[in-house]
Each structure stands twice: as C-alpha cells, then as structure tokens.
Amino acid sequence: MPDQNSIGDKAKFCCDKTSSCSKPHQGLFLKQYGAQMLFLSRVYHKSFISVEMSVSSANGTMVIQYRDSFSKAVAKNVIVVVIGISINYINVGLIHTFCKHQIFYTNPRYVLFIHLVINDMIQVTLSLCMFIISYTIYKINASVCCTFILMALIMTENTPLNLACMAIECYIAICFPLRHAHICTIKRTLILIGLIWTTTMLSCLPDLFITLATVPLDFFQSKIFCLRKTTFPNPIILEKRNITYIVYLIVVWFVIFFTYFKILSTAKTASSNAKKAKNTIILHGFQVLLCITNYISPQFQDSLIQRFPENITDSLFAFYIVLMIMPRAISPIVYGIRDTSFRKYLKTYLLCKSPQ
User: 69-351 architecture in CATH?
Assistant: First the structure.
C-alpha cells in the first residue's frame, strides 16, 4: 500500500515506467490513455476510508487512490446497517407470520414466497457483513472470502429462478383453477425449491473447482480484499458467468412474459383475482429487471468509474444501495403489504401487539 503521506487529496499515480509517466492530472490521464480498471478496493487507514485502483495503460500501470472522510465513511456504514436491519426486521416478521398460521405454510404460493424472503435475508446479511468488512478489516482470509462469495452468488442466482416459479404458480392458479390444487402441492413445491438450489449450486461450485485447479493452495491461506474477481480470478470463470447469466435471463424473461400475457388475456373476462395476479406478475418482472443489474454490475461499475472518477466512492455507494440492497425490500411489499391475509397478521407482529 502506498505511503499515506505521499497521497494527495484525491488521487496518487504511480507508474511502472517512470520515464513515460510523471504524475499527470487524473482526468488528463484517463482521457489520454483510455485507462481500464483492473482492481478496486476500499482501504481503512488512519482517519480515512480509501478506494484503491490499479489501472493499466499502454505506458505502464498506475495506482489511483480515492478517500472518504472519516465522517462520510461512518455515515455510509450507518445508512447501510439501518437499511439492512430494517429489511431483515420486516422479513423476520414475515417468517414468523408464515410459521404461526396454517393458512400460509400449507399454501404453495406462500412457501415459494417465504423461500424468497429467507434467500433475501441471507443475501442482505452477507452483503452487510462484506460492506462493513471492506471499510474496517479490509482484507480477510481467502478461504473465508471464498465461502462468502459462493453463498452470495448462490443467493443471487436463486432469486430470478424463484420469481419464475412464483409466476408459473400464479399462471396455474388463474388459468387452471380447477387443477391448481392437484398440480401445486406442498411436496412438489419443496421439490421445486430443491431443484432451484441444485441448479444454482451446479452453476456456482465450478468457480471453486476451477480456482482450486489453477491457483496455488497457499492462496487460500492468504489475505485478500473480498471481491469475486479477486477470489475467482480465472478468465474462464468470467466467460462461464456471462453464458450462465444469459441463459438465466432468457429462460426467466420468457416465463415472465408468457405468464403475464396468459393472465392478461384471462383477466379481461375473469374476476378481480386475475387482475391482481397480473399486477403481481408485473412486480415479479420488475424484480427480475433489478436482478439483471446484478448480472451486469461489473460493466456498470466500470462505466461509473470512467464517467465519475472524482466521485467514485459516492457513485459506488449509490450503486450498492439502489441496485444491491433496495431490491431486497420489494418482496415484503409484494406480499407483506399487498396481500390482505399477510397484512392482517404481519401488522400485529411488527407492532408487537397480542394476536386477537
């Protein structure tokens, strides 16, 4: 890590080839050389939180370091913790409500929903822990980071598949109401959830196997900044990820559009339940749209860094809140607030009132 005393207020540039680089201005360098970000990390040092980047160009490698003031770093961590605890508090209320009432845990729709809630809770908790670690401990053991990243990847890929299954359940309930009870049973729903986990684990675990086969075992005893590209650096993994995400998006969007238009045609002549189901499918589609942002987040982050190099920490923080944390709050809204049955019981538990 560069000496803190030698770092300017915004950035420091260090070149491998000193003959071709003499501390040029940040904006001029990015414009002149078209720098490409290779590494991004936050560094806690003395009274500052930093974001450090290694940037390569045709003339050498540079290190750009940005810093949040101590007060701004504390404020960001407080915001993230408050939002994360609030989301998990509501989700715990949803899980408690689900477990306490037979009307919910005997209904396949609510079983799929509560699986999504638990998935979101784990994802929020992991994301919260990794965010705080990045600002405090900075580097952690590679094997611990590997566990965190694998869990986060599995949870991320679970979400769109679960939403697709929920959309199919809505479609069956509205378009085939007489066969719904026979097709959508609790046993089949649990098998479906098992298939979701099997699919995502088969997608994510090869990242670990490829890394084990291509890096020295000492790597897993070292300390690294916990990112997917530092934990699983092999380019084959990147190509596999892109292909996997494209397949997921094609399948999930096909399911969303198919079920939506089928329910839409039924809703024109059917009851208000069909119209409500149509709105639910729209919300599922919006959730899937937010899932897409997770899939393209590396490219989106690179674009932010190139467009707003002087406000990189603020841009990445806004990206993290809007596209990584807030989507986890949609599930409680879809069922916890819109669903009449859930709303009646959830209000009682969240306000700590005695059930009537």
Answer: Up-down Bundle (1.20)
